[in-house]
Amino acid sequence: MRQLIRGLQHGPGGQGGRDLRADAFRGLALWFILIDHIPGNRLGGLTLRNIALCDATEAFVLLAGYAAGIAYGAALDRRGWTFAAAVLIRRVSTLYVAHIFLFVVFTAQVGYSAAALESSAYLDELHLDVFGEQPYLALLQALLLRFQPAFLDILPLYIVLLLLLVPALALLRRPAVLMAVSALLYFVVRLLNLNLPNWTGGGWFFNPLAWQVLFFTGCLLGYARPRGGRRGPVPAVPFHPLLATAAGVALLIGMAIVFVNDYGEAWLAEAPPRLAELLTTIDKTGLHPFRLISILAMAYLVGHAVPRDAGWLRSRAASPFVLMGQHGLPVFCAGIFLAFLGRLALEMDDRWPMQLLVNLAGLGALVLVGVIGAWYRLRERGEAPRHAPASAADPLRPPVPSTTTMS
Hints:
The chain is mainly α. 66% of the residues lie in helices and 1% in strands. Strands 1-2 form a two-stranded antiparallel sheet. It comes from Belnapia mucosa.
């Protein structure tokens, strides 16, 4: 662990090559996702969703887009669109296999627990009841990404977002055009209530046709056009007191809306009908504009409050979250499995000792996955050429770019 931490402190990330802010906050988002997925977890009252009109999912999608802009933008500049698209499609296939594997393991985990406890509540609550009724058809629909039980709807979202990035790579060097097309699609989707079909009825819980606007915003913030054969500066929205004030006001309004929805039932009953309807229909499925504004406002303020070379990003306290963020896919998959185990533990005993044990063990397990992933990566670097492009294929684990190449 100490060697891995020293590698983070003295490696390219500490010299400006890698943005450790994205890794650290992505790792924090992964931990929040685990906490929020455990019903009855008292620590869930302290995560992002309780203080802002957005949660770890929005943060994770924005940061995944940021990492994708770095990785695939560099591949585009070095080898052209065909190569970058091929790398993207290869990554999509990896995510697809990981999703199917996670689906099988999670279904077996929940099904076994339901049978052992002689209760179908788990199957009903996690939308796995149809799997027990029509297992062969449910498996086919899962392969087609049209059957998404609870907690298994995030990886399909990323798969579609990366597929949308394949043609969008051609517009990455024309940010105004790409942003205009993305925003237009977002507004049309929300206006016409468009969504991808779901086998069990309705549409996808995370509508990728709407969430793409957040993902592509991250891509454009991460992509740095080369200048003079070298990687140029990363795009940034300049700091301005008026923008900072507007972002702060947006977050305060979002916090007030969260508070009203959680504790203001009596006030909502007395509020004008249109206002009450507006405040209670801020949906997550279609990434409501209020949620989009909240995460962008938070990103703006945090991005300027935390400099790229902040010393604490290479500290021992931050290193576990950096390791988790750099290995997002295995950490996320482990978190889904651990969340259900945590639920079973808290259903047996939800007192403070068990609460503490579940949260510390969950965080420790996620960090361990990150440590193992980092160890394997160091082994690969010791055996492979520095310019090997394999790591460029992972938007959840971005490569470490230098000024001219990515290693």
